[in-house]
Write a structure and sequence with these properties.
With 391 residues, the chain is α/β, with parallel strands linked by helices. The chain has three domains: 126 residues, Rossmann fold (3-Layer(aba) Sandwich), CATH 3.40.50; 96 residues, no CATH class; 144 residues, CobE/GbiG C-terminal domain (Nucleotidyltransferase, domain 5, 2-Layer Sandwich), CATH 3.30.420.180. The chain is 30% helix and 22% strand. Strands 3-2-1-4-5-6-7 form a seven-stranded mixed β-sheet, with helices on both faces. Strands 8-12-11-9-10 form a five-stranded mixed β-sheet. Strands 15-14-13-17-16 form a five-stranded mixed β-sheet. Strand 16 and strand 17 form a beta hairpin. Helix 9 crosses helix 10. It is globular and about 75 Å long. The chain starts with a strand and ends with a strand.
Length: 391
């Protein structure tokens, strides 16, 4: 959880700070000028001037609420500013508690949201000046952030696409997968934003910018190696939703590096982005397998483990046959087209009592019925991939 610092340098400000600390709760630390400290305060005391404590909280916390004039805050913060990707969110509140001003890192840092939370807690007015907020449109650098989407684009491209959105230029959106509710269902899209059902239609449209939501590395069935080249003369921003569940099975003691290599090769071969991995899934019998545990930790995704009963239930109604087709290892493969059902395998059934691990685990984790990548394997490990069903 992101930590929040509340800093007050005046008596009226300290009263507001105490109230706000109770309202925000969680990982919140109160910083009060020493002369304002009461015996009952759970706070960090500091002495004036305020610059040392501002430097301290700027480097230590992800969110700051400064109860002081905006001008004073700007002068105190200016030596430590870096960029919007790393600076903490900063909100200023006046001594009367009338305004909560989003001052720094409004979008990416969350200051716009923090200003609204502070305003609600104090009965104040939130002052947010971010262009997308005041114009009621989407923020290119924030799209899908609440779902964990990763953005792929150069900073200058993001800036230019953002300018196109807020300036009312035509902007096209193409979504293949991911959460569909990134825009409020009860609100129409701004007039300059248009959703396209195919990438080809977006490429042909006279849009200044393109927002592409996909888990593929490159456009399928195209000579273009990137979405930028497939969408010429457009500022293209690609979003990677957490849409792919990876099923893994392996022999005892397979090192993390071997599993990671199998995963990387499989994703490359099937034109999928590892940035879209939502989770790793396996059998409960493998829940303490060091290689699998380490890989999930390295990827920063959860590990889901399923019982033999759950895994075998996936095969109900499936043929009694053998391994998945070997031609899934083709060099020019692409996880596109008709999905694939899992197939039974005798080997894991003899050893573990299950008809398979990687394929049913991927399907269970994704809540899907078909695989986008059927089982691929080395001599010691198997992998399969399913796409999450977003309702």
């Amino acid at each position: 959880m992101a930590s929040t610092a509340i800093v007050a340098i005046s008596r009226r400000g300290s009263d507001l700070a105490r109230s706000l600390a109770k309202s925000l709760g969680g990982s919140t630390t109160l910083y009060l000028e020493r002369r304002l400290l009461a015996d009952s305060d759970d706070a960090v005391a500091f002495d004036l001037p305020a610059r040392p404590v501002v430097k301290q909280v700027f480097e230590k916390h992800e969110k700051l609420v400064l109860l002081m004039p905006v001008g004073a805050a700007v002068r105190l913060l200016s030596p430590y500013l870096s960029d919007k990707h790393t600076d903490p969110a900063v909100v200023c509140v006046d001594d009367a508690g009338r305004f909560a001003v989003s001052l720094l890192s409004g979008h990416l840092g969350g200051a716009d949201q923090l200003a609204q939370e502070v305003a609600h807690a104090l009965g104040a007015t939130a002052v947010v000046t971010s262009a997308s907020h005041v114009t009621g449109t989407l923020a290119v650098d924030m799209l899908g952030q609440e779902f964990g989407w990763q953005l792929e684009a150069a900073p200058l491209t993001v800036t230019r696409a953002s300018a196109a959105v807020v300036n009312g230029d035509p902007v096209g959106i193409y979504q293949e997968t991911g959460e569909p509710d990134w825009w409020p269902a009860d609100l129409p899209l701004p007039q300059n934003l248009q959703a396209f059902s195919t990438l080809e239609a977006l490429a042909a449209a006279p849009c200044r910018a393109a927002l592409v939501i996909t888990d593929r590395r490159a456009p399928p069935g195209s000579k273009s190696r990137t979405y930028n080249s497939a969408l010429p003369r457009k500022f293209t921003v690609v979003y990677r939703p957490r849409s792919l569940a990876v099923g893994l099975g392996c022999r005892r003691g397979v090192p993390t590096g071997e599993l990671e290599k199998l995963l990387d090769q499989t994703f490359r071969r099937n034109n999928l982005s590892p940035k879209s991995i939502r989770c790793i899934a396996t059998a409960q019998l493998k829940q303490d397998e060091p290689g699998i545990l380490s890989l999930a930790e390295k990827l920063g995704v959860p590990l889901h483990c399923y019982s033999n009963q759950e895994l075998n239930a996936v095969f109900e109604g499936q043929p009694q046959s053998t391994e998945s087709p070997e031609d899934w290892n083709a060099e020019d493969g692409d996880a596109d087209g008709p999905g694939t059902r899992p197939t039974r395998s005798e080997a894991p059934h003899r050893l573990l009592g299950v008809w398979g691990v990687s394929e049913p685990a991927a399907l269970l984790a994704a809540g899907a019925k078909e695989l986008v990548v059927a089982k691929e394997k080395t001599s010691r490990a198997t992998i399969a991939i399913a796409r999450v069903r977003f309702e």
